Amino acid sequence: MMKKPNTAQTILSVASCKMTRAILRKTGRGGTAIPGIVAMKAAKNILAAVSEGMEIVVVTGTNGKTTSCNMIEHALTSGGHECLLNKSGANMLHGMAADLIAAADWLGKPQYPYAVLECDEAALKLVVPYIRPKVIVVTNLFSDQVDRYGGVQNVLQEIRTGVERSPESVLVLNADEPLSASLARSTPNKVVWYGLEASVGTQGNVDLADAGACPECGGEYAYDYHTYAHLGGFRCPRCGYRRKDPDVAVISVDKKGTDGSTIHLQCDGVIQKVRISLPAVYNIYNAAAAIAATKALGLPAQEAIDSLSSVQSSFGRLETFSLNGNRVQMILVKNPAGCNQAFSYVTGTGEDYSAVLCLNNRTGDGHDISWIESADYEKLCADPHLKKIYAAGDCREELYARLRKAGASEERMERVSDYHALVEQLKEEGHPVFLLPNYTSMMELRQAMTQATGNREFWE
Ligand SMILES: [Zn+2]
Asked: What is the pLDDT of residue 460?
């Protein structure tokens, strides 16, 4: 637990942060860490002041952080609870500080009773001693940006250290994902579990590479059913260690479409039909996480359940644009698991479409793009509904080669270097388009799309 800075330090820190941020925004730059760096120079513990008394939910994990945060915030505000969300996506220590300070008054007093904060896996341990979250949600763990963290086991250890520094926080864990579920073994925190109780149809090849070994005996897991990748009903045949029964349980997926899913959910002893307004299986997990987080806050789960039929997508996360009346959906893909899930979604819609794949290897993406070798491009390229594939971004040649290897014919493919020209071309497409960029290429492509369609900037 960190001491708060004194009043003079707090005022100086808050003022320098707010002013730096205002200047940066005037010059067209949002979502940067600089105001937070300036603020923490003036008062190292400023985060303790600007989060004092707030009920905070922190969301970390490899995939689904942004959408889970968005769903939790929507659940809280729909239930009448005012809530801060770090929308800019700046999820490292300084970026989070900047967002919390911007939401406080000039004396550093928080203006919201609740906050939902997306947090980078490695930043968790730096942030929790200051903000003392009531709830920590861990969505899942997959191999991601290997060059940055050195493997998924290291990421798990980073998160474990963060949880150990916050023993009063209630953990919200994915019962189906063995790596992050193992956090419950080694920490004293209370846990609210969520998960899917049954298989959800074909979700691509079963890739168990990230499953890890049984934490009790080192044995290999067996699965009673799979949902996707290494998620599902896992158990260790050798020692009996197994998936926990979820408190928020999706018992069936009744309908999947491009505009959402309908599920049956069991929570607090009640089974009910629930509509989720965002499509794809991974958003069913995100929805279950949001319900579990609401429960962990001590609020009625029903508030979250009722809000799911009206939740809107976050920028780039199945965000839908209308381009000359044509549906264009953007799905951020940044690792094999996320990529395979996106392919399952686009190939499952049953209608003709074009796909735009964009790959950069800048700092925000991870410099190592070798993960494209293990993503299931074969599944995408084998889909008869796929009419055209565009390869774009700094690494479009590598992407092009990978797609050729996966069976895409040259006639169906095109390399693109200018996003504005691409958007013009997509206006004439005549069928739905899926945009599948990674992080920094999404920022560029999204800007071109925003200009053409009038969707808002990501930090607004
Ligand atoms: Zn075992």
From this structure: 43
Give residue 182 CA to ligand 1 midpoint distance, Å. 12
Distance, in Å, from the CA atom of 404 to the CA atom of 381, rounded to the nearest integer, reads 9
Counting residues of the chain whose pLDDT is more than 90, the rounded percentage is 77
CA angle 241, 245, 251 (to 5 degrees): 135
Is 458 a domain residue? Answer: no
Write out the H or E segment, with its range, that includes residue 321. strand 317-323
Task: Measure 155 CA to ligand 1 centroid, in angstroms.
Answer: 22
Q: Which of 271-275, 316-320, 400-404 has the lowest mean pLDDT?
A: 316-320
Give the mean pLDDT of 27-37: 80
Ligand 1 centroid distance, CA of 194 (Å):
22
Single out the residue of 245, 218, 215 nearest to residue 233, CA to CA.
245
CA of 307 to the centre of ligand 1 (A): 39
Tell me, in angstroms, the distance from the centre of ligand 1 to residue 229's CA: 20
Last residue of a domain, one of 269, 286, 310: 310
Could you tell me the distance, in angstroms and rounded to a whole number, from the CA of residue 425 to the centre of ligand 1?
54
- 211 shares its domain with 358: no
CA–centroid distance, 242 to ligand 1, in Å, is: 8
What's the chain's Rg over C-alpha atoms? 22
Angle separating helix axes 34-42 and 7-26, nearest 10 degrees: 160
CA of 238 to the centre of ligand 1 (A): 5
Structure tokens at 397: 């040649």
Q: What is the largest CA-CA distance in the chain?
A: 66
* 195, 196, 201, 203: CA torsion to nearest 10: 0
12 phi/psi in degrees, rounded to 5: -60, -45
Q: How far apart are alpha carbons 280 and 257 in whole angstroms? A: 8
459: in domain: no
CATH of the domain at 99: 3.40.1190.10
Half-sphere exposure of 358 (CA within 13 A, CB side): 26
The DSSP bridge partners found for residue 196 are 250
Measured in Å, residue 190 CA sits from the centre of ligand 1 at 23
The DSSP call for residue 104 is: B
